[in-house]
Amino acid sequence: MAKKRTLVGLDIGTTKVCTVVGEVDEDGDVHVVGVGSAPSRGMRKGVVVDLDSTTRAIEEAVDRAERMAGVKIQSVYVAVSGEHIGSANSRGVVAVSRGDREIGEGDVNRCIEAARIAALPSQEREIVHLLPRNFIVDGQDGVRNPVGMYGNRLEVETHIVTGTSTVLANLLKCVQRANLEVEELVLEPLASGEAVLTPADRELGVVLADIGGGTTSLGIYLGGGLCYTAILPVGGHHVTSDIAVGLRTPMAEAEKLKLRHGAAMASVAAEGELIEVVNIGDRQPRILPRRILCEIIEPRAREIMDLIRNQLRLVRAQFRVGSSSPVMAAGVVLTGGTALLPGLDELAAGHLEMPARVGQPDHVSGVVDAIGSPIYSTAVGLVLHGARAHTKSRVARASNGVGMFGRLRIWLGDLFGGG
């Protein structure tokens, strides 16, 4: 019997740190055996602002996952987000080298390297991902794997994700100070997509919005692969802050109100529903209509949808598709902790004029009750990402241009999002 491999996902967010432990069998199936979370106090909008606090939060979340799984965690896949993340699409072109014009893996690697060089970031930035989306052989596009085909000219369209070197280094330092090795940094919407999207979603075209505490990570998949990435500077923590100011209540109480009684639309609150609001200071709690709370939340929820809609306009212009095009026929999938707000999917459907649903972790077995919430989408997706990478038969590696990692990992399996 083949030994199962243990993989761990570590999602270091603005409000909480989540750790998920999964066992991967020889077929690549993931069985979740442990989960742990802890409040995050050293992050702001996806960026480390306090090394000590972030390290302690990581240690606490990892310790809880270890106790549940009964294993010692040594290495982790780490999610990366924040406004410092940038992305671009790049194209590489090479001539097929063999005399008989059969395309080999060397040609594919040279083509991807050409795309990387064409979009080489500045010295202040590091490549996080280089994702091949589409190969073109002698003008014929839509080729998923050109190895073994015949042709004279090979092209590749790639999606390149970069981050600020110092910001990434601070994140890595916190993980390493917690005595953990980093297997790979993984873009948050790429990881979440592994957990909540299906191959059909990616093929039809889908908008993935991971609404976390400090940011909203947006990933748009067209034709099977990730083609557009944006990190928006608004998340659930801003909703909590609005509640605290609007109802003059402490932040901790505002968070409880959001989770227990909040909704993305005021119309969700029934007539006559009342809530108890704790005051700042020693005064007696107030009794207020629930609708007042929802009226505070709704403008911020609409702001998030406005920001997403603006990004969709850029995508449609970049890829020359009309607003009525079925290119994103799978609609929008909302995940992350803020996606739990009742009515948010309905608000998104109306505001973005496309189908909307809330996505929660799927494609795994094990303690699914413990991770069956959008809060754990990224952490579960990190394990799935690692499992798929380990089961791929071909992994292309390049040795230049990746700074602190010493190598650039290019997973040909990322072409069409796996699944």
Q: Can you give me a brief rundown of this structure?
A:
Mean pLDDT is 88; it is low at 322-326 and 393-419.
What does this structure look like?
This protein is α/β, with parallel strands linked by helices and 419 residues long. It has a domain at 86-160: 2-Layer Sandwich (Dna Ligase, domain 1). 34% of the residues lie in helices and 30% in strands. The protein is built from eleven helices and 21 strands. It has helices at residues 51-69, 105-118, 165-177, 188-196, 199-204, 236-247, 251-261, 290-318, 344-352, 368-371, 377-391; strands spanning 5-12, 16-24, 30-39, 43-44, 47-48, 75-80, 86-95, 125-137, 140-143, 153-164, 181-187, 206-211, 216-222, 225-232, 274-277, 286-289, 332-335, 356-358, 365-366, 396-398, 408-410. α4 (188-196) crosses α11 (377-391) and α6 crosses α7 (251-261).
List the helices and strands and how they pair.
Blueprint: E1 5-12, E2 16-24, E3 30-39, E4 43-44, E5 47-48, H1 51-69, E6 75-80, E7 86-95, H2 105-118, E8 125-137, E9 140-143, E10 153-164, H3 165-177, E11 181-187, H4 188-196, H5 199-204, E12 206-211, E13 216-222, E14 225-232, H6 236-247, H7 251-261, E15 274-277, E16 286-289, H8 290-318, E17 332-335, H9 344-352, E18 356-358, E19 365-366, H10 368-371, H11 377-391, E20 396-398, E21 408-410
Parallel strand pairs: 1-6, 3-19, 6-11, 12-17, 17-18
Antiparallel strand pairs: 1-2, 2-3, 4-5, 7-10, 8-9, 8-10, 12-13, 13-14, 15-16, 20-21
Helix pairs in contact: 1-3, 4-11, 6-7, 6-8, 8-9
